[in-house]
Specification:
The chain is α+β, with helices and mostly antiparallel strands and about 150 residues long. About 40% of the residues lie in helices and about 30% in strands. The chain has helices spanning about 10-35, 110-140; strands spanning about 35-50, 55-65, 70-75, 90-95, 100-105.
Length: about 150
Amino acid sequence: MSAYWLLALIPFLTGLSVSAQQGMLAITERLLRRTARRVEGTVTGHVASREATYATLHPVVRWTDADGVEYERAVPDTVSAHRIQEGTRVRLLVMPGAPDTVGLDSPDRYRSAMFGVWLGAVLWAGTLTAVLIRIATLLPSSCGLYC
């Protein structure tokens, strides 16, 4: 085999790293959904942030905690702020005692993380299968399995 087969490491390691990173995100999202409190909130506006080269709108949500304390925070989430109008009632996930961990109660992040896990798994498993088939075709046929 030539050195070009080392190029197969690129999709293999990329798929492995995508699967690992998205798997950690899926586990974190699953734990958040199990341990966080669900509260009702109201969208009071939108705030722009520059996360990349363009401005991104995030909804600003006001909610009351179980202790009766009222909070208002911008919710950095994957949901487009244009889809959530001002005055809309939304469900939120908040960790007890940590109001900065607020997030929209939406299964979208878990679904996209699981899609990333499967995409990475297909990438590295496909690369591994292709390399193993290539190695198997290079074995001498006269020896069989016991060379």
